[in-house]
Structure formats: structure tokens, C-alpha cells
Specification:
mainly beta; Maltoporin, Chain A; five-stranded mixed sheet
């Protein structure tokens, strides 16, 4: 994006938001005095049956005190959370940033729905999450619901939903800033302002991260063409919240971001950029409602460098995508014992890829390719929570009308002659899904719960239409892929004798029918195919304990996951899905000796996992130790010290026949945090 386009984007997002925030102040001068109005900047509160599902909430103090300052690092402390690769968004290709829960992995596309203030943020073409744009400093809380999703935009939540809520002035303060530098000279800076304007408020924030990066290539595998994982990313957000009446508020949001990375070899550069805006109306009267509309544009580019000739072999010049959508949810007053939700949502998206393969000998383009298509999903849903004494029942259904249209793949040789020109058949269908659960508050300190659910995920445009090469393996696309369908069950117990102690244990059994995987056909060829199913069952545990100024928290996920393949895919049958560990655990101890202080240590253990579908190459287990310290030095300033992977554990993130990539080494940060309260 050029500088002029960036300025136009900022202006288009900024001007209406500032006008919106100023509107209540002007109206207040003209209207008669009225009672106090409280705006939250959030959606409607959840019903009493939310605990029926395996839910974990991350509070702001944990969001803003990670060793890396990145949201994917924070989410790694949630039992069952997994990215396709072990690397964070500083040292991985953006297209690998798929998110899943409960060991339904083996695919770089997200199987969890990720929402920011109600808006889906996954890239419509690839299905990755733009983590570098989601700054923890701008968030108030994150709620992770594991298991099949429902409600608005629930069609993509086959493994769960991650809902991020932006912070307001009470959490951020009028102004907050931080600047840090690490032992490699890399920097991380952020600034957020949150003034109150009349009875509303504005929150504006910007973050800029840059650095030379570390060596992802092991020392004994480096060559002259090897390069550090250099990165530079920035993001800016602007939200305005204002009351329209005593019970109705309007929320307008804008987000822009840009990310550049270099991986493994000089010239192997990737970019990820995007702009999105949304407008939301929330009513909290007798007839509650939540109406949201959004538009989202993203782009991605990537250059592939040969690992043998070290020359450019592929230039993914651009992958522009556009998504528009919205939802409307109504909660009619049906009695104090019921919370009834009736809603509809829609999402329309399109994406196109422009790329050229290059000869490693001549350095000239050998072809010009374009691929892409359109998808749509219209969902209708209804759900009710019914409280009967100490028991809460919940049940809901969702009906989706989906389409996959205008799919194509074209390839032209350097002479301008079309060698491939394929237009794929349009497809459409209806899918019905539902979920139901029960919570029995058996005693003041004990709650028992059980739930069952189904879910749906459409294949991404990338999976359908775009082949790719990671030398020496070519992975073919498959325009005939069927949607993935989930069927799952779970049961758990929550023990909460006091506010200071919370324990949770959940057993689950999930089946992902027609799971999309990269299936090996030969030593040099794979194809995206629907396997019969992935069967994942296991245990998830979490604990939170607070006594005095000390907080202890921990999580553990143990999963037995197997691929069940068709006869033609017999070699896969019984294998563990690629990139899925059996065991993952984390524990954090935090101490707040006085106001403004925070000292914390986090230990994480990720079990061994396989790189590929046939269990040929493995990634060994890794245990890391992270430290965080915030020490006040004045009333408005604090010293911040952070340590990532303090013990310098070797983290293998890729292993293809012994050719490896490594994750974050020991990294030490120091800086200051400023804030007015």
C-alpha cells in the first residue's frame, strides 16, 4: 500500500468516528438534562448457560503482561489452543497462522472462529489470523469457548470460538504508552489514548514492532543465502462509542495494519495488510438487540526462494480479498427464567491470487497464474437458556445456506498462451447444526455440566483452488473438497468454593467428519483431500488460585487424536494428525507486592508432534520459561523487563527430512511503560 493510499484509508476511518464521538456532546448541550447513561463499548452480556460449555476468560492484567507482548503468546496458556506452527507472528509465514482447539489440527486454516468486537478477522482466502494486528494492549478481555460454535458467525467454529473485546477508558486510562528494546536491538512501541467525549468515548491506538530477527535456520544448515527472520509490522485502531438513548449505544470501529517478514533466505519476503471497519448498534432495554455490519479488505504476498539454487522460484505478487457481512440478533423479554436469542448473519467474500513461478536456472518467469472464487454464508439461529432452580438448560439450532461460486484457475506461459484455463462448477447447500447443554449447580461450590454440539466449516479458497510447492513437495489443490462437519460431546465439573479458587476439568470426544488434510500421494506430491474423519478425545484442566498478592494459574490439555481414513488413504488410518501434540501445559505465578507492580513467571510444555501426515518427521517436545516484571519508578512511569525462553530451549518449528526451522531463542527486553489514570 502506498503512502497516499494509507493516508486516504486513515482519513476515511478517522473522520466519521470522530464525528460520531462528538455527536453526544453536542446533543447534550441542546437536550434537557437526563439520568446517567453508561456505555460499555461491548456487545450484549452472555446468558446463564454460558458455563455449560468449556469456557475460559483471560483478564486484562494477563493480556498486557506477556513476555512477548503478542496475543498468540497469551492464548498459548489456554488448554487446547494450537497454531499450525510453533512460531509466533514474528517468525512464521502469515499463511501458517491458522488457529484450532482440541487437537483438530493438521491444517494451516483456522478451525476456530476468531472475533474482534463481534467481527470475524480470519483472512477469507487462506483462513489465517492476522495476529500482528491484534495488540493485547488494546484489549479488555478474551473469552475462549472450546467445542462447536453457535450464534452469530458460528459456521466457522468447528473447534471453538475466540472472542476478543476491545478495552475502554476505564481499562486503558486517558493515555498509555510503552517503548521496549531487546538484546538484538529490536523495538516494540505502542501508544493509546482514550478520552471521554460527552457521554461517549474514543479509543485510538497504534503499535509498531520492528527488528532484525533471529536465525531460524540451525547454525550447521546456514549458507550464504540464509537470513535472519527480519520483521516490521504496524497497526492502528480507532473506536468511538456513544449513547443514542438511555438504552441504546452505537459503536464504530476501524483497524488498519501492515506486516513485512523475511523467512529463512534473503529475498524470501512476505507481506500481510488489511483495513476493516464496522458499525454496531446495541440495545439493552426490554427488547435487547445487537446489530452489526462490517467491511474488510486484506492482501497477502510472498516470495519463495529455492533451498538448492537460492534463487526466486515463486512470486505470489498479491492476494486481494474482500469480505462484507453483518448480523442482527434480537432478545425478546420472555421472562426472568429465559434468555432467548433469535438472529441472522451473513458473510460474502471473494479472493483472487496473482502469482508467477520462476526458473531457478534463468531467473525468468515460466508462467503467470491466477486463481480464486467467491463464497457466501447466510445463517439463521435461535437459542434459549432456561433456568430452573439450580439447573440451567440451553439448546439452540442454526441453519446455514452456503455457496461456493466463480472458482477458477488459469495459467499462461511467457508467450501469452493459456496452458490451463479451468472454471469450476458452482456449489451450494443447506446445513443444519445445533448444540445443547446443561449446568447443575449442585452446591454453592460445585457445578456439573454436559454439552453436545455439531458444526460446519467451508473449505477456504486457498484449499480449493491454489496448489503450492515447498521443495521438493508439490501440494495440489482440490476444487471438490466437501465442508468439514463436527460432532462433539463433553462433560465437566467446576469447583469454585471462593472467588480466590477456581478449578475446572473437562472430558471431550469430538469427531471432525470430512476433515481437510494434505494427503501424501508420492515422495514429491501431496493433495488436499477430505479424510473420513479426525477423532479427538481428551481432557482439559485449568486452575486459578489467588491468596494475598500472589496469583497462580495453570492449564493442561491431554489429547488422543487419530485420523480415520478411507481405503484409498489407508496409509493415514490410525495416524496422529500432523502438528498435534498429545500433551500441552502451562503454569503462571504472579506476585503484586504493591500497586502498579507485577512480577510473573510462566512455564510452558509442548509435547512432541509430527511434521507430516505419515509420521515420518517429528518435532521434539519443548519446555520454555518466560519472565515479566513491571516496577513503578514514578507515579506515571514503570520499568518493564521481559524474558522470552529464558533457558534458551531449542524449539523446532519445522522438520522436512532434517531441514529445520527454529523458534524464538532467549530474548531479553527492557523498556518503560507510561500511563495516566
Amino acid at each position: 500500500m502506498t503512502a497516499k493510499r494509507r493516508l486516504r484509508t486513515h482519513a476515511l476511518v478517522t473522520m466519521p468516528l470522530l464525528a460520531l464521538a462528538a455527536a453526544p456532546a453536542r446533543a447534550e448541550e441542546a437536550d434537557e438534562p437526563r439520568g446517567p447513561i453508561v456505555v460499555t463499548g461491548r456487545g450484549l452480556s452472555e446468558g446463564p448457560a454460558t458455563p455449560a460449555y468449556d469456557v475460559q476468560t483471560i483478564a486484562r492484567d494477563k493480556l498486557v503482561s506477556s513476555a512477548s507482548g503478542r496475543i498468540e503468546d497469551v492464548l498459548s496458556s489456554v488448554a487446547g489452543f494450537q497454531q499450525f506452527r510453533r512460531s509466533d507472528s514474528r517468525a512464521s509465514n502469515p499463511s501458517n497462522q491458522g488457529v484450532t482447539l482440541r487437537a483438530l489440527g493438521g491444517n494451516a486454516s483456522s478451525r476456530a472462529q476468531v472475533l474482534l468486537d463481534g467481527v470475524p478477522v480470519a483472512n477469507p482466502f487462506f483462513g489465517y489470523i492476522p495476529f500482528s494486528a491484534l495488540s493485547p494492549d488494546r484489549l479488555g478481555s478474551v473469552r475462549v469457548t472450546r467445542g462447536g460454535g453457535m450464534g452469530a458467525f458460528g459456521s466457522g467454529a468447528v473447534s471453538g470460538t475466540i472472542e476478543m473485546e476491545s478495552a475502554g477508558p476505564d481499562e486503558v486510562g486517558p493515555i498509555a504508552a510503552q517503548a521496549l528494546v531487546d538484546n538484538r536491538g529490536e523495538t516494540q512501541t505502542a501508544l493509546t489514548i482514550a478520552p471521554r467525549l460527552g457521554q461517549g468515548f474514543v479509543v485510538a491506538g497504534v503499535q509498531w514492532d520492528r527488528g532484525q530477527g533471529f536465525w531460524t535456520t540451525p547454525k550447521d544448515q546456514r549458507v550464504a543465502a540464509s537470513a535472519r527472520a527480519r520483521y516490521e509490522s504496524w497497526s492502528g485502531s480507532l473506536r468511538a462509542v456513544a449513547p443514542l438513548s438511555d438504552t441504546v449505544e452505537v459503536q464504530a470501529s476501524g483497524l488498519v495494519y501492515d506486516d513485512h517478514r523475511t523467512l529463512r533466505f534473503k529475498g524470501a519476503d512476505s507481506t500481510s495488510s488489511g483495513q476493516q471497519g464496522s458499525l454496531r448498534f446495541v440495545g439493552r432495554g426490554d427488547w435487547q438487540f445487537d446489530v452489526l455490519g462490517f467491511v474488510q479488505a486484506q492482501d497477502f504476498s510472498n516470495v519463495v526462494i529455492s533451498s538448492t539454487s537460492f534463487k526466486k522460484t515463486l512470486d505470489q505478487a498479491k492476494t486481494p480479498t474482500l469480505a462484507v457481512g453483518g448480523k442482527a440478533e434480537l432478545r425478546p423479554p420472555v421472562g426472568d427464567d429465559h434468555v432467548l436469542r433469535i438472529g441472522a448473519d451473513v458473510k460474502l467474500s471473494r479472493g483472487n491470487l496473482v502469482e508467477s513461478p520462476y526458473s531457478a536456472v534463468t531467473g525468468q518467469a515460466t508462467a503467470f497464474r491466477r486463481a480464486g472464487g467467491r463464497q457466501s454464508d447466510l445463517g439463521l439461529y435461535i437459542e434459549d437458556d432456561w433456568t430452573i432452580g439450580q439447573i440451567v438448560l440451553t439448546a439452540g439450532g442454526r441453519l446455514d445456506r452456503w455457496t461456493i461460486t466463480d472458482g477458477y484457475y488459469r495459467e499462461i506461459n511467457p508467450a501469452g498462451v493459456a496452458t490451463t484455463d479451468t472454471a469450476y462448477s458452482d456449489r451450494e447447500g443447506w446445513s443444519g447444526n445445533g448444540r445443547a447443554g446443561i449446568v447443575w449447580n449442585a452446591a454453592p461450590a460445585v457445578s456439573l455440566r454436559a454439552a453436545a454440539y455439531t458444526g460446519l466449516r467451508l473449505p477456504t479458497l486457498n484449499e480449493l483452488y491454489r496448489p503450492f510447492v515447498v521443495f521438493p513437495i508439490t501440494t495440489q489443490a482440490n476444487a471438490g473438497l466437501k465442508p468439514e462437519r463436527l460432532r462433539g460431546y463433553e462433560a465437566g465439573v467446576d469447583f469454585h468454593p471462593t472467588q480466590a479458587l477456581k478449578l475446572s476439568l473437562t472430558a471431550f470426544d469430538n469427531y471432525l467428519k470430512d476433515a481437510i488434510a494434505n494427503v501424501t500421494l508420492s515422495a514429491t506430491t501431496r493433495e488436499r483431500q477430505n479424510v473420513d474423519r479426525i477423532h479427538a478425545r481428551g481432557l482439559e484442566a485449568s486452575a486459578d488460585l489467588a491468596f494475598g498478592n500472589v496469583d497462580l494459574s495453570g492449564s493442561l490439555s491431554w489429547t488422543d487424536a487419530k485420523v480415520r481414513a478411507t481405503a484409498a488413504q489407508g496409509a493415514l488410518d490410525g495416524m496422529r494428525p500432523a502438528q498435534v501434540p498429545k500433551l500441552a501445559a502451562s503454569g503462571t505465578v504472579a506476585w503484586k507486592p504493591a500497586d502498579g507492580w507485577r512480577l510473573a513467571a510462566t512455564v510452558r510444555r509442548t509435547g512432541a508432534q509430527f511434521e507430516d501426515d505419515l509420521e515420518v518427521d517429528s518435532l521434539k517436545a519443548a519446555t520454555t520459561l518466560d519472565l515479566y516484571a513491571q516496577v513503578p519508578i514514578t507515579r506515571f512511569a514503570s520499568l518493564v523487563l521481559r524474558a522470552e525462553n529464558l533457558t534458551d530451549e531449542t524449539i523446532v518449528t519445522r522438520n522436512a527430512g532434517g531441514s529445520m526451522d527454529l523458534g524464538q531463542p532467549r530474548t531479553l527486553w527492557a523498556g518503560v511503560k507510561l500511563g495516566l489514570r
